[in-house]
Design a protein that fits this description.
Length: 503
């Protein structure tokens, strides 16, 4: 007995040793492989870009590849310096945080060199000259100067110099979108009076993206130069500047310029005029402003949640009751509704209602615009109703058959049976899943940011876009959500206790 035991111990010890040997072997292979690639002379540069800005950077529809003037330029620079380029697609407002985190080596994204940005990151020498322009609808008011935008609705891409210019216009209602094409769509749909963005990108968008009905009203409101963005004191800055200088001198730069912009390149300044004579450090985070903006956002988040949940509850209850209908067709229609709204992403539903519907109706010559709030509440309510219908249905169906029969025996009509016997019991059972749906909805309202809604998450994004303090701000945003969801769950717990039967 003892010997058999010691034998098996010995055997399992041997197995463990073998296993250890295999694991060590594998680890060595992995380590060697990875150190081998690190030692390679031509380590790729990871370059961030927001590929929604043709002709500078965009995804080619047929090949799916990221292409554009910037992309060809950075590839030529990499080629000149002996480094392959690995493109990393990022949202524009995520580029500077990514450079600060050093998760990318550089970024090329038509990024204007500004003193504020230069406090958070470094720039190469300028490689492009551009300026801001105002776009309006063809039949809209002729707004040629920024000061004429006072009191108007302006759509911009979040974190861009266009957004900064718009934010300085007194009394303007600025809504920010994740990309310039979305801001232009907002204008085309009639939900904004103007878009402020870079001239070459706008010209290209109007020409190539078939955004008919838009025109440039004011051009070259500012003069800006673009630079390749780099982490502060990055070792590759010198290499990039040298390669860029060589490309300009050899005429390769001019060839790319002609190819993408159909014009002769201007003579570029050696340093950005906007950076001359300043070098103050990055300003501290204004905590009072952060608190104020996040509270404003939290108010909007709460409003969205309460409105959508209320409408969703009404719709969900109606659906749950209709699902009890003896008519087959009614049941099928309800199921179709639920399957559609549960089975497609809320994000898609939001885009469909806010951008899709007005665009469709306008091509049919039906003048229709939908404001942000009704659009967001509609999308969220339709979605929540589908989930709540299922919760309520299962609550109703969980009530014991005996209860239904007892109500029938007492001569209750189906409505009375539901109202006096089934519903009061079902409500107690569905409270915990209802609380779940409510909490989920609080968080899901953050999706409304994509249609330019300044709810809690977007307020955070907007602050990051000007202060570049991603970690502190997003932690603060998360905490505010946490306070909201925890309070909601406490409220529901209390309600549950209130409704529970005395035992
Ligand atoms: N030049 C403007 C800026 O730096 C807009 C750049 C937008 N670029 C983009 N890839 N979306 O703010």
């Amino acid at each position: 007995m003892t010997s058999r035991l010691s034998l098996s111990i010995e055997r399992s010890g041997r197995w463990r040793r073998r296993l250890a040997l295999v694991v060590t072997g594998l680890l060595t292979v992995v380590l060697l492989a990875s150190s081998g690639s690190r030692a390679a002379p031509e380590q790729p540069w990871r370059v961030g870009t927001d590929p929604t800005f043709p002709p500078f950077e965009y995804r080619d529809n047929s090949s799916g590849q990221i292409t554009g003037f910037d992309i060809d330029l950075i590839k030529a620079i990499g080629n000149q310096a002996g480094h392959p380029i690995e493109l990393v697609a990022l949202p524009f407002d995520g580029i500077i945080p990514a450079l600060q985190a050093r998760s990318i080596d550089a970024a090329i994204s038509a990024i204007t060199i500004t003193p504020e940005r230069a406090r958070a990151i470094d720039f190469s020498r300028p490689y492009f000259e551009a300026g801001q322009a105002i776009v309006v609808r063809e039949n809209g008011p002729n707004l040629t100067r920024l000061d004429q935008l006072q009191g108007r609705r302006i759509a911009v891409q979040i974190g861009t110099t266009g957004a900064i210019a718009a934010s300085k216009v007194a009394g303007a209602q600025v809504s920010s979108f994740d990309s310039t094409p979305l801001a232009l769509q907002e204008l085309a749909n009639g939900n904004a009076d103007a878009v402020v963005s870079d001239v070459p990108a706008i010209l290209y968008a109007i020409k190539a993206a078939h955004l008919s009905g838009l025109r440039i009203a004011g051009e070259h409101l500012s003069s800006e130069v673009y630079g390749i963005a780099l982490p502060t004191n990055a070792p590759i800055t010198g290499t990039i500047n040298k390669a860029l200088g060589e490309l300009i001198a050899s005429g390769r730069y001019a060839a790319l310029y002609r190819q993408w912009l159909g014009a002769e390149p201007p003579v570029l300044p050696a340093t950005a005029p906007s950076l001359q004579g300043q070098s103050s450090p990055l300003a501290g985070l204004d905590l009072a402003l952060l608190a104020k903006n996040l509270l404003k956002g939290a108010g909007i988040t709460l409003l969205l949640t309460v409105l959508s949940f209320s409408f969703g509850l009404v719709g969900g209850t109606a659906l749950a009751l209709l699902l009890q209908s003896p008519r087959h067709l009614v049941q099928v229609l309800c199921r179709l509704y639920i399957d559609f709204f549960r089975g497609t992403p809320m994000l898609v539903q939001l885009f469909l209602i806010y951008f899709g519907l007005p665009a469709l109706l306008q091509t049919l010559d039906v003048p229709f615009t939908i404001e942000r709030l009704p659009a967001a509440v509609t999308a969220l309510s339709l979605n929540v109703a589908a989930y709540l219908a299922e919760v309520l249905r299962s609550g109703i169906e969980s009530i014991d058959r005996g209860q239904w029969e007892a109500a029938d025996a007492l001569g209750f009509s189906p409505v009375e049976r539901m109202r006096f016997v089934i519903a009061p019991q079902a409500i107690r059972r569905v409270l915990p899943p209802l609380a779940n749906e409510f909490i989920t909805l609080i968080k899901d309202t953050s999706l409304a940011a994509v249609i330019g809604f300044d709810e809690l998450f977007r307020q955070g994004q907007l602050m990051v876009a000007t202060t570049y303090r991603a970690f502190e701000i997003y932690i603060a945003v998360a905490l505010v959500y946490l306070v909201m969801t925890t309070s909601a769950s406490l409220l529901f717990k209390r309600l549950e206790r209130r409704l529970s039967l005395p035992s």
